[in-house]
């Protein structure tokens, strides 16, 4: 498993997927190798039955992922020949031909539509769009974690994807005793958990709080290593309104679970990715969800969530959550039931295992498509309604 920060998961969706899926595959008797990066990560050689390989990366937004993936692929080619490789992030697609040249069947988990992220310049956006085409040309399989992503690749390239969503951990114990460490009480705060990037709308959520008459604080968990200007915008809003509390990163996973499980409302601002693990984690903890109104979020959270598009939309939703606490808590219970019925990590691991077996047996989508867009698709991104 190549292309992420690795495990134990402490950063994002890819890492969570590898942690949950890889440990289950290892428990089934498979040898699972995970490539890891990040100086802050404990350099374990094994974790949950998985073998870990730690390699460096250049600490720069533009090349951190690519530099680490390049080293990881070189290491894999020099030291092992796995039955199948899973490469995470379409940006890493240029390295896939190297794996395949060694006879290693490879699936690429394409993630969301990275070229739409505001943090990328024109060159970055062009690179991501070219990398998508490279993934289609060179990978033996593409993995999409949401219907909107699958639709996008079908419309852009006329190619199928393996649609495998993330799972949700259903939290039975609310761990409310941990809240005292932060001076919080159960159902006594609203919560945001996100990296500080424009497409996650943390500043918009903070603005919604400033425009509301909500009494309870908005607790914000997250930071951004390469977004100083956006982080300063969020911080300025917090400085102007003492109801907004910035906690920074919370790496204690039990404490983070306690925050999800005891909030009166989780506000989810992500708008670009597919099935978001933070949203699933909140649902699995029974948190009432108010989400940014895009197809991805509606696909995951369904009718029990509330949706917003602007700060003015969000303000009354925060007030309504506080005005009828029993109804708000009941919505959270409905969302937990939805997560339990639709997003099961055991089933996700079974899908990965079945795909790995098919790859090892020689199945591939490569003969189906050359991985090229039409001129008009290059011009407008062929933005299907489902993913807007």
Automatic annotation (TrEMBL):
One of its GO terms (molecular function) is glycosyltransferase activity. Residues 12-165 form the Glycosyltransferase subfamily 4-like N-terminal domain. Its EC number is 2.4.1.-. The keyword Glycosyltransferase applies. InterPro entries: Glyco_trans_4-like_N. Keywords: Glycosyltransferase, Transferase. The keyword Cell membrane does not apply. Residues 368-388 are annotated as: Disordered. This is Alpha-D-GlcNAc alpha-1,2-L-rhamnosyltransferase. The lineage of its organism: Bacteria, Bacillati, Actinomycetota, Actinomycetes, Micrococcales.
